[in-house]
Amino acid sequence: MSYLEFLNELRANAEPDFAAFQKRLIFTDREILGVRTPKMRELAKRNFDNAEEVLLYPNEYYETVFIKLTIVSMLPYPQFIKWLPKCVAWMDNWALCDSFKAKCIRCHKDEFLPILDKLFACKGEYYQRYPLVALLSDYVEEKYFDTLKRYLLGTDTSYYYVHMAAAWLLAEILIKHFDYGVSLLQEKILPAKTHNKAIQKAIESFRLNHEQKEYLRSLKYNK
To answer: Is 10 in contact with 64 (CB distance < 8 Å)?
Structure first.
């Protein structure tokens, strides 16, 4: 499929009203056509065998980048990690970052951590948010407690989307490993706004009981 044919198919599936809705939620310098996620994933699967060509398409549209990231997420681990730095560089909004989930990571968790470390050390907003989201998806287990704490301590929460990802990660720790999550709250390893946001997110979950939620409320920073 040529790039022109690819764009023509995107435009044929574009919904102007949906694009206007997305623009209120997703802040990006790229144009948003308004193609729905199931259709973009369908296009990614259909173009997977043509990955080398598609991954070289320009990044002028949000949808093009979404499809490229989806294709990379489907690659075998060696190819996935080859493309990963470019993928993170393409991210300029939370939707691209959070939808980028590669199943191959689950079979390579330990060897993937040094790669996450290198990305996280770059300090940019999505160079930090992507590792936090990856940890949230695949690493919230006892074996990685020290890793999770190290990342939370290293977050630059002056970035809004890093602040939110750190809160989301700590909330997930609280939901899955309540006692360990509470110990992190008691250590106050995160700034007050992120600490409180993590508690808020955990309290909103149906997976904690009433007593747990009441205890978390008692651990909030007071204004």
So the answer is: yes
User: Which tokens sit at 216?
Assistant: 């978390």
The model's pLDDT over 205-223, given as tens digits with 9 standing for 90+, comes to: 999 999 999 999 999 998 6
What distance in Å separates the CA atoms of residue 204 and residue 43, rounded to the nearest whole number?
35
Last residue of a domain, one of 58, 89, 106: 106
- The span from the CA of 93 to the CA of 197, in Å, is 20
Residue with tokens 């996280």: 120
Q: Are residues 95 and 113 in the same domain?
A: no
Residue 31's SS3 state is strand
Residues counted in the chain: 223
Provide the total of helices (H) and of strands (E) in the chain, helices listed first.
14, 0
Separation between Cα atoms, residue 48 and residue 55, nearest integer Å = 10
Domain boundary (91, 106, 121) is at 106
CA distance 192 to 166: 12
Per-residue model confidence as pLDDT tens digits over 63-101: 999 999 999 999 999 999 999 999 999 999 999 999 999
pTM of the predicted model, to two decimals? 0.94
Task: Match 């990685």 to its residue by tokens.
Answer: 144
Residues 201, 157 share a domain: yes
Give the integer Cα–Cα distance in Å for 208 and 190.
21
